[in-house]
Amino acid sequence: MEYRDYYQTLGVERDATADQIRKAFRKLARKYHPDVSKEPDADERMKAVNEAYAVLGDAEKRAAYDQLGRGFAQGQDFSPPPGWDDGFEWSGRQFHARDAGEFSDFFAELFGRMGRAGPGRPDHHEFDGRGEDHLARVQLDLEDAYRGAQRQITLRSPRIDAEGRVHLDSRTLEVRIPKGVREGQIIRLAGQGHPGFGAGRAGDLLLEVHFRPHPRFRADGRDVHMNLPVAPWEAALGAVIDVDAPDGKLRVRIPAGAQGGRKLRVRGHGLPGKVPGDLLLELQVVLPPADDAKARALYERMAEELDFDPRGSAGHG
């Protein structure tokens, strides 16, 4: 994916005010609008200008884009790092799938889910003057989903000053993480969204949960996957071993003749819930190093005495 320099597209500096960006957009729109322009590539240029203004003309998108894109040049290979938008608060404005043809893959990758409304929540103000909901992405540890937790979460939201420049304000909240929370689940904090109008109540803050990468565990719905190293004799002869699972130590039986890559299912030890998930253990057979005379002698003896060809039919599956 190629990086798009929206400031370059509009011909403005990175510290341009909102009014300067608006004027630059209008000037380019008059130049490249397909109804009036004689430029051969007017349609594509107009799409690029519209996309740039969709980002730089919106305080939320501009703040996120500014933080993400420092140091990148137009056309440079680009991939957004995981969790780049953690803690940003998006309001009720929404990028719809029907707009996908009007914007680049770069735009869709960054802002395609931004401002997604919560379940059953319309994207407009209600008549009673209720404030907009805000959506923020937060990253938690997988262990938090097993035990529940109380966490301090810092959120960032853009603000436009009197001169039209964008600033990032931050606020810190104490949040209770419920036991059994899943990847992608929404935690609703009532009254923590945008202020209401007049006597209207504030909107809600919707925290979209994502798990930080874990060195040993990976969640898939309520199931949790884990690689389990075993010795060759444990796999060949069978064994009962201790496993440090996310919810504590377990005793797991390795069946005799198990091969690397086999998955063992331990029911009920995935993420908690009314119907808890399972823990799936993928066996990884780890060979001892032949780094001393005794170990080498054992390997040499196996090579001589065992009728075993790992590339033959008996060594597969």
Termini separation (Å)? 39 Å
In the CATH classification, which architecture of the domain at 217-315 applies?
Sandwich
Helix coverage percent: 10-25%
Major beta sheet summary: 4 strands, mixed
H and E order: HHHHEHEHEEEEEEHEEEEH
The secondary-structure class comes to alpha+beta
The CATH class assignment of the domain at 217-315 is Mainly Beta
User: Overall 3D geometry?
Assistant: elongated
Q: How would you state the average pLDDT, rounded?
A: 81
Question: Which percent range describes the beta-strand content?
Answer: 25-35%
Number of strands: 12
Query: What is the name of the CATH superfamily of the domain at 217-315?
Result: Urease metallochaperone UreE, N-terminal domain
Q: Which regions have little confidence, pLDDT < 50, spanning 5+ residues?
A: 92-100, 115-128
Order of strands across the biggest sheet? Answer: 1-2-6-5
- The rounded Rg comes to 28 Å
Count of helical stretches: 8
* CATH-assigned fold name of the domain at 217-315: HSP40/DNAj peptide-binding domain
Helices and strands, with pairings:
Blueprint: H1 6-10, H2 18-32, H3 42-56, H4 59-68, E1 89-90, H5 105-111, E2 134-140, H6 142-147, E3 149-160, E4 166-177, E5 186-189, E6 205-211, E7 217-220, E8 223-230, H7 232-237, E9 239-245, E10 248-254, E11 263-266, E12 279-285, H8 293-305
Parallel strand pairs: 2-6, 8-12
Antiparallel strand pairs: 1-2, 3-4, 5-6, 7-8, 9-10, 11-12
